[in-house]
Design goal:
This protein has two domains: 11-61 and 159-355, no CATH class; 361-634, Nitrilase/N-carbamoyl-D-aminoacid amidohydrolase (4-Layer Sandwich). It is built from 19 helices and 21 strands. It has helices at residues 4-13, 17-20, 36-54, 58-61, 119-133, 165-179, 193-196, 201-223, 247-254, 263-283, 285-288, 298-317, 333-352, 375-391, 412-415, 423-435, 518-526, 542-558, 607-616, and strands at residues 62-65, 90-93, 100-102, 149-152, 225-228, 242-244, 361-368, 396-398, 438-440, 444-448, 451-459, 465-470, 476-479, 483-486, 498-501, 506-509, 529-535, 561-565, 582-584, 590-593, 599-606. Helix 1 (4-13) crosses helix 3 (36-54), helix 3 runs antiparallel to helix 12 and helix 6 (165-179) runs antiparallel to helix 13. The structure holds the ligand NC(=O)CC(=O)C(=O)O. The ligand NC(=O)CC(=O)C(=O)O is lined by residues 475, 512-513, 516, 537-539, 542. Pfam families: CN_hydrolase, ERO1.
C-alpha cells in the first residue's frame, strides 16, 4: 500500500496557504474532536517535513497508472482536448457553489503530461515488477493491467489534473449527485454545510471526504497556476511557462463572498479528510511497518522503511485522531448495507477518475496550397498558412508535395535548390523558429551532386532541420489515354526511410507514390511511429481511384494515423492535382478531408486511439509470421 492519499493531502494543508486567504479559519473541525490550529501545528512541525522527503524516494515517486483505461460511465469526449489537458480558467462562481463559470479557451501549457522516465529507472521497474509478481496478492490491484505505465510524480506536479470544460463539471456532478449520500429533498449538486447535519455520521463522513478531496485539488491548482506562458512553446516540456501561486484564484475558489459562504467549510472538510487519513495510516501501521518498499535498490529501500517507521511513530503520537469506532455500529441489516453502499460508492468514484480526460494528443494542420509558377509567391503563401495553422493551435504544419514548384519533370531542374542552404529551406527554418512550430515542408525539387530529388524537409520549433526524406518510389506510370508520367526522367530515388521524433510521438515520412508501398508504412509502424505523413499530388485519374483507399489502407494495416497533403487543383497548370488532402485515424476512418480548393484542414492525433484500436482488433499480435515465409514454397 502506498501512502499517496495522505501525502497529497498533507502537502496541500502545509502552512502558508492560510496566510494567503482573505479569511481566517479557526475553531473545531467538524465531526472531530480537534481544532484547526492543532492540526496545523502538528502537520507543519512533524508530518509535512517527513512527507516532503518521503515523496522523493523512488518507491513513492514512481507511480504506476493506466492512463488509457476507458471511462466506464460515458464516452469521454475530453480525452483529446486541444493542446494539452488543462484546467479551464474560471471567472466566477455560479449558483451551485464550488462550480465555476469557466471559459473553454485553454491555458496552453496546463496539463501537459510528462512521461519522461530515465533508462535506468525503466530497468528498475522491470525488477519491481518481477518482485511484485512473486508476492501473494489477494486482490487485483488497480495498476495491474498491461497498459499501466509508470509516471514520475516529480515531473508531473499536482497542477496537472486533466480536467477540462464540461467534462470536469460532469465528473464532479456525478461524484456529488450520484455517489454521495444526500439528505432528502436536496437537489443542488453541492450540499450546504448546514444541511449536512440532517444526515447520519457515516453519510456526513462520506460527504466530507469527497468535499475535502475536491478542496485539496482546487488548492493545489491555485498553488501551481500558470501565471504566464510567454516562454513556453508548443511541444516543449511542461513547465517552460511561469508557474506559481495565484492568490486571487485561491480566494475565488474559497472566499465566503464568492462561494455563498461555503468555501471555509470545504477547507474544514479537507482538515477532516486529513485526520481521517492520518487515522487510517495509524490503523494500518502494523502492515506498513512490515512492508519492504522494494525498488531493487537495497540502500534506498532500507532508508524508505526507516523513514516510514519514523513517520508512523510520529503519526501514532497524535492525540486527536478521528474516532472511526463510532461508525457502522448498527448490526442490523440497514447498518450492514450502509457499509456495503459506502464501499460501492468509493469504488465508483475511483472508476470515475478514469473519466478524467488525459490529453495525449496534438493537432496537425494539412495545408492544401495553391501552387503557382512563381516560387517566392508559393513560399510566401505557404508560410502564411503555417501562421494560420499556428493561430489555430496546430503543433505540426504539413505542406504539400512540390509546394514551391509546379509538379512536372520539366520544372524540377529550374526550381531545384540545395538543402538546407536554398531559399525555401531558409524560409521554412526561420518560420518554424519564429512560430515555434514543427513544419513538414511538403517537398521541393532538391539538387545535390548534379542529381535531382523530390525531397521533404522537416523543421523543429527551433528552426533546426531534423529530417530529410527523398521520394523513394518514383512516379513512373502509363495509363494510355489518361496519364503518363515518368519522374525518373528527371529524378533519382531516395534510398532511406525517414522518421522524426517530437516529444509527443515518432512520425514517419513518405512522399506521394510512396504511399502505394505498404512495406514502407509497415516499417514505420514497426519503428514505433504513430503518424505517417505523405505530402502527395495524385491526379484526376488516380486520385478518384486510389487516393482515399490508399490512405485508409495504410492506416488500417498499421493502426495508426495517416495524413496525405495535396496541392490544390489548378486547372491552368499542366498537372491537375486531385486535392482532397486527407487525415485518417487508426480505425481507418477519414476524420477530415478537403475538396480540391486551397484550404487548411486539421487532424487531431490522439495517441490513446492507437492503443485502443490495437487492443480491440489485435492484428499486430496475431500475425502468422511462421507461415509468411515463401522461400520454403515451390512457386
Ligand atoms: N504523383 C505521385 O507520385 C503518385 C500518384 O499520383 C499516384 O500514385 O497515383
Amino acid at each position: 500500500m502506498k501512502l499517496y492519499v495522505v501525502l497529497i493531502i498533507t502537502c496541500f494543508v502545509n502552512g502558508g496557504y492560510k496566510s494567503n486567504f482573505l479569511f481566517e479559519l479557526t475553531g473545531k473541525i467538524n465531526d472531530c474532536s480537534c481544532d484547526i490550529d492543532v492540526v496545523d501545528e502538528f502537520n507543519n512541525a512533524k508530518i509535512y517535513p517527513r512527507i516532503s522527503s518521503l515523496v522523493l524516494k523512488d518507491f513513492f515517486r514512481f507511480y504506476k497508472v493506466n492512463l488509457r483505461r476507458e471511462c466506464p460511465f460515458w464516452k469521454d469526449s475530453s480525452h483529446c482536448g486541444i493542446r494539452y489537458c488543462q484546467v479551464e480558467s474560471c471567472n466566477e462562481y455560479t449558483e451551485a457553489a464550488q462550480e465555476f463559470d469557466c471559459e473553454e479557451t485553454p491555458h496552453q501549457d496546463l496539463g501537459y503530461l510528462n512521461t519522461t522516465i530515465s533508462v535506468s529507472s525503466l530497468e528498475d521497474f522491470a525488477l519491481w515488477q518481477a518482485y511484485d509478481d512473486a508476492q501473494d496478492l489477494f486482490c487485483r490491484l488497480p495498476d495491474e493491467d498491461g497498459d499501466a505505465q509508470y509516471v514520475d510524480l516529480r515531473l508531473n506536479p499536482e497542477r496537472y489534473t486533466g480536467f477540462k470544460g464540461k467534462n470536469a463539471h460532469r465528473i464532479w456532478h456525478v461524484i456529488y449527485k450520484e455517489n454521495c449520500f444526500r439528505p432528502e429533498n436536496i437537489y443542488e449538486v453541492y450540499i450546504r454545510s448546514s444541511k449536512l447535519t440532517g444526515m447520519c455520521l457515516e453519510k456526513r463522513v462520506f460527504y466530507r471526504v469527497i468535499s475535502g478531496l475536491h478542496a485539496s485539488i482546487n488548492i493545489h491548482l491555485s498553488a501551481k497556476y500558470l501565471l504566464s506562458d510567454k516562454n513556453s512553446n508548443l511541444l516543449s516540456q511542461c513547465g517552460t511557462g511561469l508557474w506559481g501561486p495565484n492568490i486571487e484564484e485561491l480566494n475565488r475558489k474559497f472566499a465566503p463572498e464568492f462561494t455563498n459562504g461555503e468555501g471555509p467549510q470545504w477547507i474544514r472538510n479537507l482538515y477532516f479528510l486529513y485526520l481521517l487519513e492520518l487515522r487510517a495510516l495509524v490503523k494500518a501501521s502494523a502492515y506498513l511497518e512490515q512492508e519492504e518498499y522494494y525498488t531493487g535498490n537495497e540502500k534506498e529501500d532500507a532508508e524508505t522503511r526507516k523513514a516510514i517507521n519514523n513517520f508512523l511513530m510520529i503519526a501514532k503520537e497524535f492525540q486527536f485522531h478521528f474516532n472511526e469506532s463510532v461508525m457502522f455500529q448498527e448490526t442490523t441489516l440497514d447498518g450492514k448495507s450502509l457499509k456495503e453502499e459506502f464501499r460501492q460508492h468509493f469504488r465508483n468514484i475511483s472508476s470515475i477518475m478514469d473519466c478524467v480526460g488525459c490529453d495525449k494528443c496534438f493537432k496537425v494542420a494539412l495545408i492544401q496550397l495553391n501552387v503557382t509558377a512563381d516560387k517566392p509567391t508559393n513560399i510566401d503563401r505557404a508560410l502564411k498558412y503555417v501562421q494560420t495553422a499556428k493561430e489555430n493551435s496546430a503543433e505540426i504544419a504539413i505542406l504539400p508535395e512540390c509546394f514551391n514548384s509546379p509538379y512536372g519533370t520539366k520544372f524540377f531542374p529550374k526550381y531545384a535548390e540545395k538543402i538546407p542552404s536554398g531559399e525555401t529551406c531558409r524560409c521554412l527554418s526561420e518560420c518554424a523558429k519564429k512560430l515555434s512550430i514543427y513544419i513538414v515542408g511538403g517537398s521541393i525539387p532538391e539538387i545535390e551532386s548534379g542529381r535531382l530529388y523530390n525531397t521533404c524537409t522537416v523543421w523543429d520549433p527551433q528552426g533546426k532541420l531534423i529530417a530529410k526524406h527523398r521520394k523513394m518510389h518514383l512516379f513512373d506510370i502509363d495509363i494510355p489515354g489518361k496519364i503518363t508520367f515518368k519522374e525518373s526522367d528527371a529524378l533519382s530515388p531516395g534510398n532511406d526511410i525517414t522518421t522524426f521524433e517530437t516529444d509527443k510521438c515518432k512520425i514517419g515520412v513518405g512522399i506521394c507514390y510512396d504511399v502505394r508501398f505498404p512495406e514502407l508504412a509497415n516499417i514505420y509502424r514497426k519503428l514505433g511511429c504513430s503518424l505517417i505523413v505523405y505530402p502527395g499530388a495524385f491526379n484526376m485519374t488516380t486520385g478518384p481511384l486510389h487516393w482515399e483507399l490508399l490512405f485508409r489502407a495504410r492506416a488500417c494495416d498499421n493502426q495508426l494515423f495517416v495524413a496525405g497533403v495535396s496541392p490544390a487543383r489548378d486547372l491552368t497548370a499542366d498537372y491537375h492535382a486531385w486535392g482532397h488532402s486527407i487525415f485518417v485515424n487508426p480505425v481507418a476512418q477519414v476524420e477530415a478531408q478537403a475538396e480540391h480548393e486551397e484550404t487548411i484542414i486539421y487532424g487531431i492525433v490522439d495517441l490513446a486511439k492507437i492503443a485502443e484500436t490495437r487492443q480491440n482488433i489485435p492484428i499486430l499480435k496475431q500475425r502468422r509470421t511462421d507461415v509468411y515465409d515463401i522461400s520454403h514454397h515451390h512457386l
